[in-house]
Amino acid sequence: MGSAGHYWGQGHRPLTCAHRLEQASSLGRDYVRHVREGPGSGSSVRIRAMGKRKREKAAPRAAADARRTLAASPIVARVLALGAIAYALAVALSSRHPRPNTWGLDASGYLSAPLRGLTLGMVATGVVLLAVAAVKTSVGAGQPSQGRDPQDHRRLRFLIPLILLFPVALWLLRVRSYFLGDQQVWLDYIQTDRYPLFSEPLAALTWRGYAFLLRILAIPPLERWLAILPVLCGIASAILAWQISRYVARDWKTRVLGLALIATLGTTQLYCGYFESYAVVTVAVLLYLLAGLRHAHGEGSLLLVGLSLALGVGTHLVVLFLVPSYLLLILRARTTAVRRAAFVLLPILVAGGVAWLLQIRGGQILRPFQVLQVALLTSGLARPQTTNLAGHLTDFANLILLVMPVPALLILSRAFAGSLRSWAAAPERAFLMAAAIPGMFVAAALVLPGSPAQDWDLMSVTALPAALSGIFLGLPDPSLASNRLRVGLAMLALGPLLAFILVNADEGAGTRRFKMIIDPSVALSSHERAYANEKLVKYYILRQDADSTLVYAKRALAAETGNPRFCATVGTALYNVHRYTEAARYFEEAIRGGLDRAEVYYQLGLCYMREHRYDEALAKFRVAANLGDRPEYLHNLGMAMLATGDADAAHSVWNYVREHWPEFEPTALALERHFGGGKGR
């Protein structure tokens, strides 16, 4: 009996058949009374249907987990309000007098007065709402609901017009100043049908496929049509962001705020017709993060995570910073050691297969690292050692303030509330942290050699997981349930982003901002300074502004003294302002430096012709004609022959030009003037 008593519990006896019949009879009587008296009666019995019921799909538990681990505290709202006030003051002061070291804050300062007032007004509105919410915060009031509201689908209908307006806004606000990143290079490659793969093969392949589609549709590769691909990437990123927001919270208001904060990160600029690989890369990164969150939540397969990682690395090698987060998922997976090893090898094999299919050579992959090495070797000469650390920290802070100001404030508020350790306990958040920390280390490392104000696009990709971590950290907090606070956060994020987008959508404003961030007073590596000034040279050449071209060509040469390409650029600028003797010296220096190009010999020959040095001009035109069979080279070769007294040779050359390029008018006029237009003399 002792064992039986222990099994049934103290004071309980095994049920006999009589006991079971009595309980069944009592249960039946209670059910009949419940049916007769209705559900409001004092005793009700819940009867489970005997048939098989369809099991409802469980919603993501992220919000519920957050409420168990994060204690509601008014400190969060107050720190957010104070941080927003400090941020708004920094934005306002920086916008009054933009400087090279405030590039993450001062975008409004380059706009016209109405647009400046609009963007700063949005920031001020956000600050006021956050301050009011902080004053009226009471713990426990207005907490988000624990379950899903059945009216959520109806309430979310208001998103439909926003979804339709989003791509339209991206296209209307597309980039019109192509100085940031490598946009000029990519635009030149696309319009001339060249697609070097370098370290971003799948992104380059995406652009190539899109350009091929335009050719099939007989659409010219103009900027306004090319801008559609980044806009499509923006639509894809919004869809992924909405799926990711499922893991932020279950209530619709917090989920919509999560979507809004992801959509107002600085990376949204990449979707506004930004001619680079990074619009494609950010979509790949978001896809990987979504796959990782689903697996950490127990919904998705680790196979999909590995494939999405391989896809991301294929779009750009910098995505390798996500490898630690993938390894964390493998270590936490409940599987065998053999399967773990297979999952480790999966992205390596897939990425290797892609490289083999695309015939990517090792030199193409190593090229960006070689450029980085050059920048590292020259960066130490740009700043005195005493200012190196301060300058790098300032650049890193500007990057954070440009790309993720509100997520940074959310992280700061939770740090003051003292809940960071408990926050990282959930598997979803641990996964995000494993992606965010290496990404921020990569961003900090890239700040050292380069110009973050120019190369913000690459660094924004590595900061994206950290931004999502900040959003995941802050939004589920019960203290942030106030509608004022939610709207305030959205306005605080939207105002600076809109200012940044508007600057780059205005050619004049974007040019002024770029000149500021590469001002001679800014400490840049010689490589970055030369490259930046070369962008302005190309810009002013297209606009036929010879004086401005000369200014920035000389600055590029000063940054990399002896660079033969920049010597030739200065020579061209001097020729266009009719300073032929000086131009000839720079062209000669370029040739001595090893620049063996037809156009350099041709332009040097033009300089000699202007100085009546016809024999020397004839020699240079011959070299140019041998290197490149172009009508202008041969035409001026004939002019030099005529000037040196060899009229028969000139006539023969011009006849050749007329036969092969009958539409080339200068030669037709020369034949008419000197030989009466006929083939014979």
Describe the structure.
The structure is a single chain. This protein has 681 residues and is mainly α. It has 3 domains: 17-46; 73-145 and 165-510, no CATH class; 524-675, Tetratricopeptide repeat domain (Serine Threonine Protein Phosphatase 5, Tetratricopeptide repeat, Alpha Horseshoe). Helices cover 69% and strands 0% of the residues. The longest helix is centred in the first third of the chain and has 23 residues, at 74-96. It starts with a helix and ends in a 6-residue tail after the last helix.
In terms of quaternary structure, what is this?
Answer: single chain
Structural class: mainly alpha
Shape: elongated
Binned strand content: under 5%
Q: Which consecutive residue ranges, at least 5 long each, have pLDDT under 50?
A: 1-15, 34-59, 62-71, 138-146
| Total E-strand runs | 0
The whole-number mean of residue pLDDT values reads 83
What gyration radius follows from the Cα positions, in whole Å?
Answer: 34 Å
Q: Tally the helices: what do you get?
A: 33
| Helix content class | 55-70%
The termini sit apart by 134 Å
Largest sheet properties: none
Overall number of domains: 3
What's the topology here?
Elements: H1 2-8, H2 17-37, H3 62-69, H4 74-96, H5 113-135, H6 152-155, H7 159-172, H8 183-191, H9 201-216, H10 223-226, H11 228-244, H12 252-263, H13 278-296, H14 302-315, H15 323-332, H16 337-357, H17 362-379, H18 385-403, H19 405-417, H20 420-423, H21 427-447, H22 456-474, H23 483-505, H24 507-517, H25 526-542, H26 546-559, H27 564-576, H28 580-592, H29 598-610, H30 614-627, H31 631-643, H32 647-660, H33 665-675
